[in-house]
Amino acid sequence: MNSRFDLNRIIDIDKWHMLQDSLSLVTKMAIITVDYKGVPVTKHSHCQSFCQAVRQDDALSSYCQKCDARGGLEAVRSNKPYVYQCHFGIVDIAIPIIVDNQYIGAIMAGQIKLRDTDMPLEQIVTRPPNAETDRKFKALESEYRSLPVLSYEEVSTIAEMLFHLCNYIVEEAIHKNSTIDMYKKTLSLEHATAASMSGAAPTYDHIQAMQNELSSTLIETKIKKSKANEYRSVNPLLQPAFDYLYRHKHENVHLQDLASLCHVSSSYFSRVFTRETGENFSVFVPRLKIEWAKQLLETTDLSVNQISDELGFADPGYFIKTFKKFESLTPAVYRKIYYTEHAQQV
């Protein structure tokens, strides 16, 4: 796991736990955060006394762990919150944290009962009948009856809220950390250059690579999440090419370079790419860059010249010509229309 996707590195665990405690109080649900391996990175927030007793029992806790594992896998598979029943019929939710198509952890919430008793929810782990288990349950019956009760609509609303909130916070933290890391690298490079009087100076290529990497990171923080940022190739052979395109928005990428990256000839890459996207490479890439340009025009005050540079166009004139080809108007007119319509909606 790349450290960029390590939850312990991404977020301030103490602050995150304070947020988790508050969310637990508001939602009436017990909540815990786990990493991509299923290992908790926080303590349980307001774990119910019934579940505390069950999880401390050696014979029963293994079933709880199986529920957590199965719930997490279903949430990752579907890329959305998964609501299910544990082996005691208690309702739990597994909420995946997924950034840049990378699963980095999950929020496990629940320990509640459902008011809508006729609502069909999967019980993902079952226990065989056991007299000893029945005896233990009877001893905890009062704790079981005291579990919070919510409607299915409330559970679904809470699940969606936690999904969007937690994914947004983690994604923003990753982008912020990436920008800070690149800024620190740039500063260290400047110090190294200043100290080069007594040693070998950094090469031009090294400095250029650092600047390109920083530029790419800054662009990522400006371009909001959209379908244009989520392309997953049906043909796995092409995925390295798409990954490179989206991570190097500032570059003028050539077909030959991506073909080499995928270890195939340029002609074969071109045929497979067209079959995959329905467009020639020479049409798909400019169209994609114009989609990114539209987002920058809508969400930043960058000038047309700056956007042209940010997205790797040869010169502003070519950028404007390309934009007009796809949108039938210039970037400046597009921004003016967007802000006018947005102001009317507000």
Automatic annotation (TrEMBL):
Organism annotation: Paenibacillus dokdonensis
Pfam families with a match to the protein in the record: HTH_18 (PF12833), PocR (PF10114)
Occurrences of domain HTH araC/xylS-type (ranges): 239-337
The name this protein goes by in its record: PocR ligand-binding domain-containing protein
Record keywords: DNA-binding, Transcription, Transcription regulation
